[in-house]
Amino acid sequence: MNIPLGENIRRLRQENDMTQRALAHHLRVSVQAVSKWETGLSYPDVALLLNIADFFAISLDALFGREERNL
Predict the structure, then answer these.
(1) Which residues of 20-54 are buried (b: 16+ CB within 10 A; e: fewer)?
(2) Listed range (10-19, 44-53, 59-68) with the worst mean pLDDT
(3) Does domain 5-58 bear CATH number 1.10.287.70?
């Protein structure tokens, strides 16, 4: 399963004119952690996912690249 999470984090960060360092500082993680997320070498801890989504004012579905569906 190819999850575009890292790509989405990078896109959102760049759209907000933010450096990896600034995002790392806000989330209280290392710059290396953000870099690894964005390159797909690792994923954020599940406890951080809501913080990331809230920071960018998006849903978790949007963070994971899922389109919302009418059920």
Answers:
(1) beebbeebebeeebbebbbeeeeebeeebeeebbe
(2) 59-68
(3) no
